[in-house]
Amino acid sequence: LAERIAASEGWLKSAPGNHYVVQLLNVDGDRQDEVADFLATRTQSLDAQRLHVYRSNLSGRDRIGVVYGDYASRAQADADRRRLAQLCGGAPYVRSLAKLR
After folding, report:
1. Phi, psi for 16 (deg, rounded to 5)
2. Please, where are the H alpha helices in 15-96?
3. Per-residue pLDDT of the chain in tens (101 residues, 90 and over written 9)
4. Euclidean distance between CA atoms 51 and 48, whole angstroms
5. Are 84 and 24 in contact (CB under 8 A)?
6. Residue 74, CA distances (Å) to 67, 69, 84, 88 in order
7. Can you tell me the distance from the alpha carbon of 20 to that of 25, in angstroms, rounded to the nearest whole number?
8. Which of 19, 31, 72, 82 could form a disulfide with 27 if both were Cys (CB 3.0 to 4.6 A apart)?
């Protein structure tokens, strides 16, 4: 998980801020096992190269998020969000990379 987060940090810094991703998971930072399980089960049905994991701090709370893709438009991300909802369950949503940073 630490390696995936480190790799995602580089991608997040270099990806265009006007691009979009699909948020698949966002949990408290102490739930690393849940993130690892999520990744282990989803990499079978998703392109692992397009799965990114990041850490954030929201209102003083450590968070871990999993996002998918790198879309040039909100419409592209939203179209794939529907497919991802069927594959992953839950309620994925579209986020801009600028706000993710």
Report:
1. -60, 135
2. 32-42, 74-88
3. 999 999 999 999 999 999 999 999 999 999 999 999 999 988 788 998 999 999 999 889 999 999 999 999 999 999 999 999 988 888 999 999 999 88
4. 5
5. yes
6. 14, 12, 15, 20
7. 15
8. 31
Angstrom distance (rounded) from CA 25 to CA 76: 19
Residue in the structure block whose two tokens are 């939203």:
78
- What does pTM read for this prediction? 0.93
Tokens of 11: 């991608």
Secondary structure letter of residue 19 according to DSSP: -
* Distance (Å, whole) CA 100 – CA 19: 10
